[in-house]
């Protein structure tokens, strides 16, 4: 049932995004030719249109694209002059490193913050934590990126200002250390911004747990502090937090788009913006589909985690 | 809980915060409207000045006063946010009511639609829609209206479902009142607070997304004094140490968004009849 729903959603997303992009006033041929506009006559334009199949009716174009897609061919990117799947694959490697780092850091830090805030409820720690999280929810991601850039790259000079690799160095001379150096700032930005949600959620969950009777009993037996949390709290809150982190893939992707733009980091997000600005239709379509799959993947894992890890769910099934 | 504030109860506190927030926003909007275009004209004598009393936020590479640009940008953002959030609320209300009242099939279609919009990252949808309309004001407003409704639609659907099965509505129906009468006299007054609060809470997201898309270069045109434009232009000058170009406009945006967020939260408290004056 769920897979059917996903399939219909995917088909609908393909169709709608195709229609949307085709109705754009940005002329793909003009975007393709770019600055050489004056040197290209109307005959040549027609030839280009024919080459890309742009002079056929929209439905025919959609079916051409759709059937090619099913065969695994996503078309050729107009700005990178490479197959879309290759562009996405290449960029995904960069993006996945960035997103994974940020995902882990924001998850761990946010979880810890939430736990500390709940255990120290109504103290100044809790209140400042809450205040910080609410502020974070109102902070534009790209502004946070700019601040990090100003402080760490311009003032302190610890890290390079942008890009994924040092400028003017051949691809084969780029070391892992270089790549790591370029990764730290974007990953840091993304981690800082991603903390809020998990922290607030975990805090609320743990407060609920702490109000329960078995905690009262444990306290009566003399357990307190970290031991109390370790024995009775952790198991109850770790699964919701994990699920939330997986379900937040959509925001993670959105954050990555903005951060990559700030740091000119060569990932999927930057490619999306480039494709949108310069009218690269096949690439934009490919990226929309890819990001959708990414979000679906996250939701699927979140679902599976609940089924596999939560003992209450397991019991419910066997009954 | 908070011993320092026991003088006032929760509702009174919420009322004060609401009034303060509204006054603050009013002042910002008035400043944005009153400032004339004169102050952002180029003035090559005062280029790249760091913040002083005359130019509290400094000036940019064309000598334009950043304070004026920022406040004009904020007013513009609030305007875009207003239209976008209004459109989104309208969609959410219509779809929420449809899915709660028009039977199983309609419910399924609406929930499918919600899934559809939640399965593509918001920012990617916004880029896609902005691309479709070739950028500019129209694209961004439509984009925001089309992407922010799902969560509110769910809330309204649940609310309507609950009221429809409430006893007084059942009795009213048995007594022969028409569906229209029930919808306007029983259901609508109940969901109105939800709609209003939902609208207020959509606002911050709308403003942030507007700024984000504009920052990426797919939103408002570079001639407008929008916050996104200011920040993306500032990127070129940051490496030269001109931090004020990015710092103050972003900080103002943060304050505005936070104020709207607080306003929404406090209006919710004011309208919630379950929180009494104690």
From TrEMBL, chain B:
Subcellular location: Cell membrane
Cellular component terms per the entry's GO annotation: plasma membrane
UniProt-listed InterPro entries: BP-dependent_transpt_permease (IPR050366), MetI-like (IPR000515), MetI-like_sf (IPR035906)
Transmembrane portions of the chain: 12-35, 71-98, 110-131, 137-156, 195-220, 240-260
Keywords associated with the record: Cell membrane, Membrane, Transmembrane, Transmembrane helix, Transport
Domain ABC transmembrane type-1: 74-264
Main location: membrane
Membrane-topology descriptor: Multi-pass membrane protein
Cross-referenced CDD domains: TM_PBP2
One Pfam match: BPD_transp_1
PROSITE patterns cross-referenced by the UniProt entry: ABC_TM1
A GO BP annotation: transmembrane transport
Family to which this protein belongs: Belongs to the binding-protein-dependent transport system permease family.
Name of the molecule in the record: ABC transporter permease
């Amino acid at each position: 049932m769920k897979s059917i729903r996903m399939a219909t959603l995917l088909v609908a997303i393909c169709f709608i995004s195709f229609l949307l992009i085709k109705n754009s006033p940005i002329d793909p041929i003009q975007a393709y030719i770019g600055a050489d506009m004056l040197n290209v006559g109307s005959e040549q334009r027609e030839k280009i249109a024919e080459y890309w199949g742009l002079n056929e009716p929209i439905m025919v174009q959609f079916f051409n694209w759709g059937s090619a897609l099913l065969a695994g061919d996503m078309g050729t990117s107009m700005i990178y002059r490479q197959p879309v799947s290759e562009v996405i694959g290449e960029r995904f490697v960069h993006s996945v490193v960035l997103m994974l780092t940020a995902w882990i850091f924001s998850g761990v830090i946010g979880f810890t913050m939430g736990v500390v805030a709940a255990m120290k409820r109504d103290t100044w720690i809790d209140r400042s934590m809450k205040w910080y999280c609410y502020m974070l929810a109102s902070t534009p991601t790209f502004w946070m990126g700019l601040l990090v850039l100003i402080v760490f790259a311009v003032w302190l000079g610890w890290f390079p200002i942008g890009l994924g690799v040092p400028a003017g160095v051949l691809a084969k001379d780029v070391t892992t250390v270089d790549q790591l150096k370029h990764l730290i700032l974007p990953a840091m930005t993304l981690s800082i911004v991603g903390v809020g949600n998990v922290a607030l959620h975990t805090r609320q969950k743990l407060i609920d747990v702490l109000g329960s009777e078995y905690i009262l009993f444990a306290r009566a037996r003399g357990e307190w502090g970290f031991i109390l949390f370790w024995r009775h709290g952790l198991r109850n809150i770790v699964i919701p937090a994990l699920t939330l982190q997986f379900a937040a893939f959509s925001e993670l992707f959105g954050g990555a788009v903005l951060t990559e733009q700030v740091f000119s980091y060569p990932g999927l997000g930057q490619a999306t913006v480039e494709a949108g600005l310069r009218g690269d239709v096949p690439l934009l379509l490919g990226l929309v589909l890819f990001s959708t799959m990414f979000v679906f993947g996250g939701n699927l894992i979140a679902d599976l985690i609940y089924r596999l890890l939560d003992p209450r769910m397991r019991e419910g099934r066997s009954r | 809980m908070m011993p320092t504030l026991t003088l006032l109860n929760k509702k009174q506190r919420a009322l004060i915060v609401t009034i303060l927030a509204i006054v603050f926003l009013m002042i910002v909007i008035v400043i944005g409207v009153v400032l004339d275009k004169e102050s952002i004209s180029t003035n090559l004598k005062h280029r790249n000045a760091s913040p002083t009393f005359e130019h509290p936020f400094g000036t940019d590479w064309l000598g334009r006063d950043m304070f004026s640009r920022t406040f004009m940008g904020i007013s513009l953002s609030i305007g875009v946010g207003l239209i976008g959030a209004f459109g989104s609320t309208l969609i959410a209300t219509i779809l929420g009511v449809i899915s709660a009242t028009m039977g199983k099939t309609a419910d399924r279609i609406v929930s499918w639609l919600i899934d559809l919009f939640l399965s593509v990252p918001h920012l990617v949808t916004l880029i896609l829609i902005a691309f479709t309309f070739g950028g500019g004001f129209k694209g961004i407003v439509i984009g925001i209206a089309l992407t922010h409704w799902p969560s509110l639609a769910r809330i309204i659907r649940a609310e309507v479902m609950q009221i429809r099965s409430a006893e007084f509505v059942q009795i009213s129906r048995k007594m022969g009142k028409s569906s229209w009468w029930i919808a306007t006299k029983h259901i609508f007054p109940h969901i109105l607070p939800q709609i209003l609060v939902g609208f207020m809470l959509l606002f911050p997201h709308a403003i942030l997304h507007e700024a984000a898309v504009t920052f990426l270069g797919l939103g408002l045109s570079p001639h407008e004094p929008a916050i996104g434009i200011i920040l993306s232009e500032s990127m070129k000058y940051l490496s030269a140490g001109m931090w004020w170009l990015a710092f103050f406009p972003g900080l103002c945006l943060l304050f505005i968004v936070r104020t709207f967020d607080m306003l929404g939260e406090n209006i919710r408290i004011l309208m919630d009849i379950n929180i009494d004056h104690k």
